[in-house]
What we know:
Elements (H helix, E strand, L loop, with lengths): L6 H9 L3 H4 L3 H9 L2 E5 L4 E3 L7 E7 L2 E6 L5 E7 L4 E2 L2 H4 L7 E4 L3 E7 H10 L3 H25 L2 H16 L6 E3 L3 H8 L3 H13 L3 E4 L2 E4 L2 H9 L4
Antiparallel strand pairs: 1-8, 2-7, 3-6, 3-8, 4-5, 4-7, 9-11, 10-11
Helix pairs in contact: 7-10, 8-9
Amino acid sequence: MKTAPSPHGRVAAAFARNGWFARRPAELQRRLIGHAQISAVEAGRWLYDKGDEARGLYGVLSGSVTTYIALDNGEDVPINISGPGSIFGYAAQVLGGFRVTTTVARERSEIIFIPQYALGAIARDLPSLWLHFAELATEQLTWAARTIAEQARLSPAARLASRLHTYAIQWGMTDGIVTLPIRQDELADLTGLSRKTVNGILKRFEKDGLVALGYREIEIRDERGLRRIATDKAE
């Protein structure tokens, strides 16, 4: 009989999909996994709000979360959806200890949490921890800057293809196919496009064999094709 993986084994498998985590020293990986806690949260549950004091580091074991940022007019705008293997909540570790975004569970999810006291204990033995977090924050800043540039310069089709390609890689392609539990209206909000525009582009992608549209989900069938569209200057 096959033995079910331990909780820490599941965390290790999830974090192994994260590029930043995979590049960390083995000892730091071991310490972070060893302090990880797992909790189930229902759809709509707030993990933290802007201005909250940082209480630890988060990750997604299963399910997904949406991150929002508040505009000066008070509107909360979604900026990203994070799936299994994602690590977040680190910016507050290097930005004064307070949250700058709001993160909410999109569906019933299993959330990984590493408490602040555990991070402090790790840092006492491995002072470079904060430099590793700074690198993670820099990666996220670079991604955010690229997203802004894409919205300013790419065509709607290329912009949507880029976002779908990013999520296909994050969710993990299996046999060239991955199903994203993401709605069309969410994609519209994330890319700054109208829902009608997103629907029209997705139908074109479906006709070309790049995706298959389902109820509240999008199946990616050709992530390389999406990548070509995202990088085609003539698109």
